[in-house]
Amino acid sequence: MKRDESGSARPNEGRDDLAERLWRFRNQYREARDPEKILRGALRLAMESFRAPEGCVATLVPGSREMTLLPRATAEAAGWDRRLMSEFLRGAGAAPPRGSMLARVRRRGRMWGVLVVRAPGADFSWGARETFARIGGLAEELVAEADLARIREVRARIDRKMMEEARPKHLAYEVLHGIRSLIAYDHSAALWIHDPTAAALEVVAEQVAWRKAKGENVGRRLSLSATLREALGRSAVLGFDRDGPEWRDWTGGDAAMPAELLDHDLLARAGTFAASEGAVLYASLATREGLLGVLKVASVHPGSFRAYEVELISQFLPQAAVALRNARRVEGLERRMIDAERKHAMADLARSVAHDVGNALGAVLPLAQQLAADLDSGAFDAAAARADLRQMEQSIQTCRRIFEGMLNFARGASPDPGDVALRRAVDSALAIVREGIERRGVALRVDVPDDLPRFRGVRADVERLLLNLLGNARDATESGGSVAIRARVESGRLMLEVEDDGVGIPPEHLARLQEPFFTTKADGHGLGLAICRSIAAQLHGRLDVRSATGRGTTVAIAIPIDEGRNEHGNP
Fold first, then answer.
1. Alpha-carbon torsion 156, 321, 419, 473, what sign?
2. Is 204 strand, coil or helix?
3. pTM surpassing 0.70?
């Protein structure tokens, strides 16, 4: 475009050149998916078209008046007035200084970015300013197309994960990650599943944006009042902004309804920085069967979310509902698998303790018969009888310990999670397997303190896990070897280890060890470690196996704990 010395376009000159430049710009960026890249391209086009030596792109932080200069787009020059840009973007009547032009760019239904070019001494005409605004408008169109294409890509990726039958946890995080890439929330997002039997919400997935990590609240529960449960049963997306100590509902819902959720700060930790929530969106996932769960998205600045975000969240509710429905289904399948394995294990336990019980009872009968014979013959010896009775008592106590352990395991604890004391679970498991371990000539070492913090879980499942691990260690260890079980607190987790110095596991088998139905035992069913892995996952923990052929095996389980609770499970 031809210009006079002021930088203004001459009448009727250069319009074809401008049209060609805009056409090339559109073709170059029509497939772009990065809005900031589009803005940088628009700035280069404007600076070339107006021969402006200085240029700047700034975007508005959602919910605030703060402008952020876009890296790699702002020319090296001092004096960019961010306050002026903010006022111009908000239509506050700010007039650009002489030699400068500003163009607004809308995104997601509200003002978002500012393009600025500057040529000291130039006097841009009204036509030049219209042309510059046209460049900004084209950038706005391309950004909107990029956002729409991105939404399609994210939804397609989640749909693909659903078709691949990804694990519910992976699918839940895929939903959160997709929302993060589209909304760019700067605080956190969480997916809560509803447990109707306990009238509570439980966090099944969480991402914390302000520290770029998965959340620590997975597994935490929030009890629901009847009023809140009824209100959440109505499928809707509600938006709230913090207004001082209160929350203001801007979506027309019941502001009092989610007060329990709004005021429930799970992220607060003593001595730990946690950014405050200034804006939240709550989406109820409700079906004809009732409440499935809640999707929560939070940002730091009030006003960060508006109608665009509500509409976008609404589009992702079906996928979030599928993730929660699959989580319930998998949880039910795992529970049934554990129950089936429990019944199978009772037969295994009965066989494994039969010899111990037989030995104990086998010593009782002849001693009782000898006592009766001595009384009949008049050869009763009080000292000998006292020793025999003590041996009989010891044998009966052994049987009692074994039977009580088996009965407790057969009955199981409540299926609802509660506070689990690890030492008690260890003692219950050892009551069943200790005799078998020691009978084989294997030394048993126990280092599990009584005052370890409690964790949330089903005690019967923890005992099942311990029985599997101790049974495997026993079977792998020859006479003269040792089995150790120990536990400690480390980095906010309860570290449980079961170690043996037995035959070890060949490397080719180690990778498949946790697969269901894979076993190296002639009479095994291949569910033991698979069950242990499922139980560890339900505890929101991790199970690792380390082994070397001929040197033994160590199974380590890391279980998250709340270090704010004492050994009795109380705050």
1. negative
2. strand
3. no
Angle in degrees, 0-180, between the axes of helices 307-377 and 168-183, rounded to the nearest 10: 160
**CB contact at 8 A, 253 and 236:** yes
* 19-23, 99-103, 168-172, 405-409: segment of lowest average pLDDT: 405-409
pLDDT at 408 (0 to 100): 59
Q: Find where tokens 């203004």 sit.
A: 8
Angle between helices 422-439 and 459-476 (to 10 degrees): 30
Chain CA centroid to CA 286, Å = 21
Q: How confident is the model at residue 46 (pLDDT cuts 50, 70, 90)?
A: very high
Q: Exposed, middle or buried, 365 (CB in 10 Å: 0-12/13-18/19+)? A: exposed
CB contact at 8 A, 294 and 201: yes
- How far is the C-alpha of 480 from the C-alpha of 336, rounded, in Å? 38
Categorise residue 421: left if φ over 0, alpha if ψ from -120 to 50, beta otherwise. Answer: beta
- For the stretch 151-186, what's the b/e string if a residue is b when 16 or more beta carbons lie within 10 angstroms of its beta carbon? beebbeebeebbeeebebbebbbbbbbbbbebbebb
Q: Bigger pLDDT: 123 or 321?
A: 123
Residue 462 has pLDDT above 80, yes or no: yes
SS3 14: coil
Contact 47, 124 (CB under 8 A): no
Q: What are phi and psi of 6, to 5 degrees?
A: -80, -10
* Res 445 pLDDT > 50: yes
Q: How confident is the model at residue 380 (pLDDT cuts 50, 70, 90)?
A: confident
How would DSSP label each residue in 220-248?
Answer: -EEE--HHHHHHHTS--EEEEEEETTEEE
**How far is 304 from 301, CA to CA, in rounded Å?**
6
pLDDT in tens, 494-535: 999 999 998 887 777 666 565 544 455 544 444 467 778 778
Q: In the structure, what pLDDT confidence band is assigned to residue 554 with cuts at 50, 70 and 90?
A: very high
Dig out the tokens for 12 from the structure: 């009727």
Q: Which residues pair with 205 in a beta bridge?
A: 191
Which two three-digit tokens encode residue 450?
Answer: 């009584």
Q: Which residue from 9, 11, 33 is spatially nearest to 21, judged by alpha carbons?
A: 9
Detail the DSSP E strand segments found in 402-464.
Answer: 418-420, 443-447, 455-457
* Residue 296 amino acid letter: K
* pLDDT beyond 80 at 273: no
Q: What is the DSSP letter of 96?
A: P
